[in-house]
Amino acid sequence: MSRIPQISTIGTEIGLFSDSFVRYKLKEVCFVEDGIQTGPFGSQLHMEDYVDEGTPIITVEHLVDGFISHQNLPLVSDEDKQRLSKYTLKSGDIVLSRVGSVDRSAIVSDNEDGWLFSGRCIRIRPDNSKVNPRYIGWLLQHPSVKEYLRRVAVGLGMPSLNTKIVENLPIYLNPDLGAQQSVVHNCDLLHSLTALKYRIEENLHEMISALFRSWFIDFDPVKIKSDGRMPYGMDEETAALFPDSFVDSELGPIPIGWEVGKLSDIAKITMGTSPPGESYCDLDSGILPLLNGAGDFNDSIIAPKQGTTQPTKIANDGDFVFCIRATIGNLSVCEEMYCIGRGVASAKERNWFDRGFLHQTISNLFRVWEWEATGSVIKGITGPEVKNAPVVLPPKSIRKSFENTVMESMLMIQKCMNLEESLSTCLEALLPRLMSGELSVS
Fold first, then answer.
1. Where are the beta strands (DSSP E) in 8-166?
2. What residue segments make up the domains of the chain, in order of their start?
3. What superfamily would CATH give domain 22-173?
4. 383-432 tens-digit pLDDT
5. Secondary structure (3-state) at 273
6. Is 206-398 a domain of CATH 3.20.20.70?
7. Mean pLDDT to the nearest integer, 120-135
């Protein structure tokens, strides 16, 4: 890193920037037509519209550190894609969370060109004759800009942004597109390691999810055996664990010998309870760090902002934790003890061989819980809804086989998550100084 000599900065509502930069409103550097567009209303898109193959829809949970996650994407048919064409994304667009975690955003790459975005998001389409779109994307990752968005969000219960707030978001930049490209290049260099780590982690997740879906949702081994064939790529010992026929159940046909149970049959579920307000304190002063909701998570990374001197419900080291109010998801693993507030729940497998099975089961339940969530101000799911969520339970022998198959990949994912935390901390520290013009990368 080399310091640019004699750079003078000024304090602004969104952080420090060079005094030579020009202040704009975001709408002034976006296209006039559909430059800033909210997603489709709930009445335009329902859960029953989702299909097994089609065009993906990006929602808040898919906005991860400037990336768009490709995990657990809802899909719509070509007919619905045409009907919702107003909400199509192009490479270079930026998707910003509109409700809940209003500081989450990501830049649309060539890989997501032509996808759609949900009603919980806002699409920003910068005019590339006025600004480098990736510069705006990086600006929205600036810690001070994120804080500004949280501060100006409206709503007594669940924070939210509207078109007017986003249109008037102040931005500071050098009008010279070449200078903007230099900043973008420097930020991209720092981001490249995180991107590589993230893609490795995502590929591992996809491999595990694909195996889980094949075995426990699509029942591929059972279907193949029912045709008198051997499951491709599966050894005889594992194949012998699967039956070759189905029986009817409340969830539809399931393999013979399998059961329909509840999530609480395979996990001990703890619903969070927020500690007294007067017990909140900084992290160093508390007995335990506090996880109260989505604001204490960065996707799958736990990032508490405060502690408590009066812990209520506890999540232990190794427990799964996830959000159940406003933002539903953010599944993560505790590496220490936490106090969990009412916006968070924890789960601990009852048997060692159910760890991977439990992780995938909860991940697949998020979509159901998201649509079933109720609440006049803040949507959420209740303890009974979590504990009594119906799941198909295969015999222990098959769950053990699944655990042994995915265990190594799960360990690699955890190592990637640990690396991600270090890289994110580094990028967060350097990004403001790069955006302000104080630092450059040789």
1. 9-12, 15-18, 22-25, 36-38, 50-58, 63-64, 67-68, 75-76, 94-97, 105-107, 116-117, 121-124
2. 22-173, 206-398
3. DNA methylase specificity domains (3.90.220.20)
4. 999 999 999 999 999 999 999 999 888 888 777 766 666 666 666 666 77
5. coil
6. no
7. 93
